[in-house]
Design brief:
Elements lengths: L7 E4 L6 H12 L6 E4 L7 E4 L1 H11 L4 H16 L6 E3 L7 H7 L5 E6 L2 H11 L4 H18 L5 E5 L7 H19 L1
Parallel strand pairs: 1-4, 1-5, 5-6
Antiparallel strand pairs: 2-3
Length: 188
Amino acid sequence: MKPIQCPIIVVGPPRSGTSVTAKVLSEHLGVKMGNVFLNLGEKINQRSYEDMDVVDASTGYSKNQDAEVWKVSMSKFFDKMQQGNCPWGFKDPRVAFGMKWIIGHFNGRVSVIRCHRSEALVVKSMMEKLEMKRVVAKHLFDGTNKMLDECLAGVPTISLSFNGQIVDEEVLAETISDGLGKLAHAFG
């Protein structure tokens, strides 16, 4: 994969496959997906690539921080990442609220990978792994998907479905690579 200046953004509700997608992008396709590799613990039983600049900015915004402060933080993050010499991206389910701005920031030249998983599986996973109440988990699932539906209307997107099957990382890497190739061709 050659260096790109537009980011690869992985979106979807929590527990929908964003972490495994970021892992495959990083480990199989050489995409810088964060500055911290987290082991999220035995209870969640997974590892995740996170960029703490994105996590901090999104957490602040979700706690009623000014949207302009979030935009400045994200712009600084984008500038830093574009200085690198490799493909880059990020994932944080909380950026769903800002996707319209992010897409505009890059004049529509973003590679979006949207992860899908059934409501029943996501809600069950959030209840078990994140100890959320059903009503909260369902609200988060519905709200994230509604925001993404609105923000991504008309945006070329790679859709990945994770509905209970065991993920073969090699196959997923090939699917993602093919999709990114098609998006790159569409951008010219």
